[in-house]
UniProtKB/TrEMBL annotation:
Role played: Catalyzes the conversion of GlcNAc-PP-undecaprenol into ManNAc-GlcNAc-PP-undecaprenol, the first committed lipid intermediate in the de novo synthesis of teichoic acid.
Name of this protein: N-acetylglucosaminyldiphosphoundecaprenol N-acetyl-beta-D-mannosaminyltransferase
Catalytic activity: UDP-N-acetyl-alpha-D-mannosamine + N-acetyl-alpha-D-glucosaminyl-di-trans,octa-cis-undecaprenyl diphosphate = N-acetyl-beta-D-mannosaminyl-(1->4)-N-acetyl-alpha-D-glucosaminyl di-trans,octa-cis-undecaprenyl diphosphate + UDP + H(+)
Taxonomic source organism: Melghiribacillus thermohalophilus
InterPro entries named among the record's database cross-references: TagA_TarA, WecG_TagA_CpsF
Gene Ontology terms, MF aspect: N-acetylglucosaminyldiphosphoundecaprenol N-acetyl-beta-D-mannosaminyltransferase activity
UniProt pathway annotation: Cell wall biogenesis; teichoic acid biosynthesis
CDD domains: Glyco_transf_WecG_TagA
EC annotation from Swiss-Prot or TrEMBL: 2.4.1.187
GO biological process: one example: cell wall organization
Length: 241
């Protein structure tokens, strides 16, 4: 699979539909797939954290989740045509599971949040085959592993925050009979109605970061990663292959 590389971090230049198509081929070949969302902030963190960079680059799909990555690709003549956000990728996978009767397992978030999220997901996708769920504050990790081994979900969503969730997936995936692993960050909170996404006009314009900055001004330090990212991309060699 071709990848674009920015500051040593791989990004998959695929659309939602192309990822879903590729995932189904991998499932038919009984191959596991891991999905991680990549944005400028995460790329900048990976400059200081070799383990994080390795974790991202070893994933099957690195989603271009961030308008900064999309613009960097255009600037460098890459092939990324659209943002692929983590939460929208999750929704595409839920739709896939609903259509093909794939079993799904949810792990992470607070107990009450997780239950509300599942209730809302079931309303959106009636009859979705939920193999199981577990909130993110369990002390018995071995029991969780055994439950996943027993229920054999096709898709596992892990919401422990990044990169903790990706480290968890990397640590356990070889022991789990799961085809698709996705770290979904705060997506359960959104499905539960605890956190609101930016209005559609901000999403379409790729300005969700601006909406979050307006509604959560304390995030301003995190947003400084965007100009630093562009500066480095402009003056460093990026690989398009």
């Amino acid at each position: 699979m071709k990848k674009e590389t920015y500051l040593g971090v791989n990004v998959s230049p695929l659309t939602y539909e192309e990822i879903i198509h590729d995932i189904q081929k991998r499932m038919n070949a009984q191959k596991q797939s891991t999905i991680i969302a990549v944005n400028p902030e995460k790329i900048m963190k990976a400059q200081r954290d070799e383990q994080l960079r390795k974790l991202i680059n070893e994933s099957t799909y690195q989603l271009p989740d961030g308008v900064g990555v999309l613009l960097a690709s255009r600037l460098k003549g890459g092939a990324i045509r659209e943002r692929v956000t983590g939460i929208d990728m999750m929704d595409h996978l839920l739709r896939l599971a609903h259509q093909h009767a794939y079993r799904v397992f949810f792990y992470g978030a607070k107990k009450e949040v997780l239950k509300r999220a599942i209730k809302n997901i079931q309303s959106r996708y009636p009859g979705l085959d939920i193999a199981g769920y577990q909130h993110g504050y369990t002390a018995n990790e071995q029991a969780l592993i055994e439950r996943i081994q027993t229920t054999r979900p096709h898709i596992l969503f892990v919401a422990l925050g990044s990169p903790k969730q990706e480290h968890w997936i990397r640590k356990h995936k070889d022991r789990l009979p799961v085809y698709i692993f996705q770290g979904v960050g705060g997506s359960f909170d959104v499905y539960a109605g605890e956190v609101k996404r930016a209005p559609a006009v901000f999403q379409k314009a790729g300005l969700e970061w601006l909406y979050r900055l307006i509604t959560e001004p304390k995030r301003w330090k995190r947003q400084l990663a965007l100009p630093r990212f562009f500066f480095k991309v402009l003056f460093k060699q990026s690989r398009i292959s």
